[in-house]
Amino acid sequence: MTNTRGKRRGTRYMFSRQFRKHGPIPLSTYMRIYKKGDIVDIKGTGTIQKGMPHKCYHGKTGRIYNVTQHAVGVIVNKQIKGKILAKKINVRIEHVKHSKSRDSFLQRVKANEKKKIDAKEKGTWVELKRQVDKAKMHSMKHLSFLHHELNDWYLNSPSLG
C-alpha cells in the first residue's frame, strides 16, 4: 500500500494522551493568561481536535503575536529545505503552554542585578558573564593516564621505537 498524505499521518503516539490522563482536560488550561510577546511551547492535545496545530509544529517553541478569545497566534520557525522561515499559525489555547525556556534567563538577570548592587556598595568590579566550566579532576586524571599508556606503547613497539 502507498502512504497516505493525511494531516495526522504518523501521529499515533504524538497526539495520544498519557496514562491516566484521558478524558476532559483540566479547567486550569483555560485559566492561563497569554499576552503578546509571551514564549509558548506548542503541544497538540489529542482530546480537542479544534484548533490543533499541524504535526510539524508539535514540540516547537514560538512567540505570541495575537490573542483572541479562544486562540492565540504564534510565530514559529520552520525549516523548509535550506531555509528557516518564520511561520504564523493560529492555535487554540488547549494546545499551547507557557515555555520554561525563559525562566533560567530571568533568574540570571535577577542574580546579576543583585551582584551589581553588592559590587557597587563594596566599590568592586564583578564578572556577570557566564563562565565555561573547567574540566573535572577525574577526567584530567583519566587523560593523563591515557597519555602515559600511549607513550609507553609507542616507545615499546618494535617497528616505531
TrEMBL record:
The record's Gene Ontology cellular component field reads:
ribonucleoprotein complex; ribosome
Choose any GO biological process term that the UniProt entry carries and state it: translation
The yes or no answer to whether the keyword Signal is present is no
Q: Which UniProt keywords apply?
A: Ribonucleoprotein, Ribosomal protein
| Family annotation (InterPro entries) | Ribosomal_eL21, Ribosomal_eL21_CS, Ribosomal_eL21_sf, Translation_prot_SH3-like_sf
Q: Which SUPFAM superfamilies match?
A: Translation proteins SH3-like domain
User: Record keywords: Ribonucleoprotein included?
Assistant: yes
Q: Which Gene3D superfamilies match?
A: 6.10.250.3260, Ribosomal protein L21
Q: Name one GO molecular function term.
A: structural constituent of ribosome
What family name appears in the similarity comment?
Answer: Belongs to the eukaryotic ribosomal protein eL21 family.
Matching entries from PANTHER family are given as:
60S RIBOSOMAL PROTEIN L21
Q: What is this protein called?
A: 60S ribosomal protein L21
